Each structure stands twice: as C-alpha cells, then as structure tokens.
Amino acid sequence: MKIQRHAAILRVVRERRIESQDELREALATEGFTVTQATLSRDIRELGLAKLADPQGGAFYTHPHRAAVRPDLAQVLPTLLVSVDGVGPLLVLKTASGSAGAITEALDQTGWAEIIGTIAGDDTVLVITRSQRQRETIAQRIQALVKK
After folding, report:
1. What domains can be seen in the chain, in order of their start residue?
2. Which sign, positive or negative, has the C-alpha torsion 115, 85, 105, 81?
3. Facing residues of 128 across strands?
4. Looking at residue 38, what is its pLDDT?
5. Which pLDDT does position 111 carry in this prediction?
6. Do 46 and 6 meet the contact criterion of CB atoms below 8 Å apart?
7. I need a surface site. Which of 20, 28, 33, 63 has the fewest CB within 10 A?
8. What is the DSSP track for 74-134?
C-alpha cells in the first residue's frame, strides 16, 4: 500500500501544482488513498519532496530529482537556506525542514569544480571541497546568491 501511495503522490505533484499538504491529501483521497497528516508528512520526507517558492508568489511541492524540474540555485537559496557554516573543507548548509534535497540538487547542477560531492539530510546539506580555501569560495558564492 505504501509503494502505491508513494507512486500516487509523485504522480500528483508531477501532474499539477500542489501548494499544501491539505491539497495533496485531498488529491490522494480522489485516487483512493486516505492518509493522516502525520503519514503524509512522513511520505513527503521519505520521497524527498521539496517545497519551492514561485517567483510569481506562493510555493508548491516538487520532486527535486524529476528531470523536468531542475531547481535553480539562485531561486531556491533565498527562500530555503537558513545558515552557512563550515570547517576545513566541509561546508554545512542548514535549510528549511525538508528542503535539503532541493538545495543539493540545485547545487549539484552548478558544476562548480571546487565541490567534490554533496550529501543531503532533511534540513542539512554537507558540501565537501578539497580545501578550506575552496570551501570559503563556495560559501561566498552561496551567500552572494542569497543576497541577490
């Protein structure tokens, strides 16, 4: 049942703009899935859905790994990034809850050569660089994008 529900969630957010958990829960009900808010929150987290801000207003759920939706770093950082910190070659980005996947996807798409790799949790992104200097360069770029 969980696999079918997850597939339905992904299908719904792919096919139409879903702005809230209540709206998603209603859409699932029309597909035959009755879920509690707690179950839906857990499903959203397990699927790695992110809520992206729309430049025209509002926000909507998306799956950051969908080929059709590649979050732009300059778009997601100002709305989802909470803080930037680091030590040595490691940069830690704190994000809004459930948003680390979207930021990681957007960061991976930049192709910045200083980044060896990224790891996303729920609200934390670990960015690994080759040196402290490269980590500082990436942190400065990120902060500049947030200020735009």
Report:
1. 2-47 (1.10.10.10), 73-147 (3.30.1360.40)
2. negative
3. 90, 117
4. 92
5. 87
6. yes
7. 20
8. HHHHHHHEEEEEEETTEEEEEESTT-HHHHHHHHHHH--TTEEEEEE-SSEEEEEESSHHH
State how far Cα 40 lies from the chain centre: 17
The closest of 142, 9, 127 to 66, measured between CA atoms, is 9
Distances 53 to 61, 75, 128, 132, 139 between C-alpha atoms, Å: 9, 8, 26, 32, 22
Residue closest to 110 by CA, chosen among 72, 148, 145: 72
**Would you state the structure tokens that stand for residue 33, as one six-digit string?**
């899935």
Q: Where are the alpha helices (DSSP H) in 19-81?
A: 21-30, 37-47, 73-80
What residues form DSSP beta bridges with 115? 129
Q: Is the pTM of this model over 0.85?
A: no
